[in-house]
Amino acid sequence: MKVLAGDVGGTKTLLLVAECNAGGCRKLRQERFESDAYDGLSPMVQGFLSTAGDAAEGLDHACFGIAGPVEGNAGGQRARVTNLPWELDSTQLAATLGLARVRLINDFQAVGYGIDALPAADLIPLQEGRTVPGGPRVVIGAGTGLGEGLLIWQGGHYEVLPSEGGHTDFAPTDADQVAVFEALRRRYGRVSYERVLSGRGLVNLLEHLPRAPGEQPSAELNEAMHAGDPAAAISEFALGGRDRLAERALECFVRIYGAKAGNLALTCLATGGVFLAGGIAPKILPRLREGPFMTAFRDKGRMAGLLATLPVRVIRNPQVGLLGAALAAMKSAG
User: Where along the chain do its domains lie?
Assistant: First the structure.
């Protein structure tokens, strides 16, 4: 059947029309939009469908993965995008778009639905571990924000439980992280993991890590940060060995990422696997493959041996959430 799907984030939104069946989905039309260029989701989708031609014919069902909490039930959902002033209502969207049904789900719920549709080449192992068939899974991903999801085996497939665990309290684990925590607490009052594990979080680390006398970002890094995406500039300079402070910030980011992923895995006993999604992980894969991430992941005292048995994978397909939303739209059609 033909479905409309969307991956709605604070920075970008991906929209897709696809032909889906039990074997997967075939893309008919896809487009990327800058989210903050629109006042809401409806005008964006209407513009997309108006140029989709035959691909838009016969659409009845849609699902949008939303970067933010979703409330409601099977009869209707409401959502607010965390990093945008958008308030969404599934019933209103369906009426505006002329569809029989629109479903809203959390963006990492969509990622969870998409995992089993990925080829093995899209899953990069950081730790092989021992996968328990049907065991709980977790997905975590840093990007514009920090998303999480929990996957439970139910009725012969994985059902995804949405989470806003990225907004739990940041727990620093070394002196540098404590210094960052104190600086951010003075600024915000409360410090969540998203304040340090996100694009803006990487910038926060660069700004607030303790520095040796005279240690400053290079003029080249400052220029690159002002000219484009600051987090991308920090990552690029760190990975290329072009700025020592950027390297320190990225190493701190990786350690916090590993510790947070380990916390989530331990909470759920994720014997089915730990999956890293989001826009940042694939871009810093060389650093994730090095020691600090997995060292921090396993650094759980008496539970270290247990953490060493859990499979850990990086999802390198940036459209896994879009794929998951398309599959969810198909399922919602019955």
Answer: 2-113+319-332, 120-316
Strand pairing class (273-277; 312-315): parallel
* Residue 184: predicted pLDDT: 98
The half-sphere exposure of 332 on its side-chain side, counting CA atoms within 13 A, is 29
Helix (H) or strand (E) holding 265: helix 244-268
Beta bridge partners of 139: 149, 275
User: What is the C-alpha separation between 40 and 38, in angstroms, rounded?
Assistant: 5
Q: How far apart are CA 103 and CA 101, in angstroms?
A: 7
| Regions of the chain where pLDDT drops below 50 | none
Q: Considering the domain 120-316, what is its CATH architecture?
A: 3-Layer(aba) Sandwich (3.40)
The angle subtended at Cα 322 by Cα 107 and Cα 233, nearest 5°, is: 75
Q: What is the pLDDT of residue 334?
A: 67
Domain 2-113+319-332 identical in fold to domain 120-316: no
Full strand arrangement of the beta sheet holding 101-106: 24-34, 12-21, 2-8, 61-66, 101-106
pLDDT value at position 23?
75
- Residues 130, 120: contact at Cβ < 8 Å? no
User: Distance from CA of residue 266 to its chain's centroid?
Assistant: 19
Fold classification of 2-113+319-332 (topology level): Nucleotidyltransferase; domain 5 (3.30.420)
End-to-end CA distance of the chain: 11
pLDDT of amino acid 333? 77
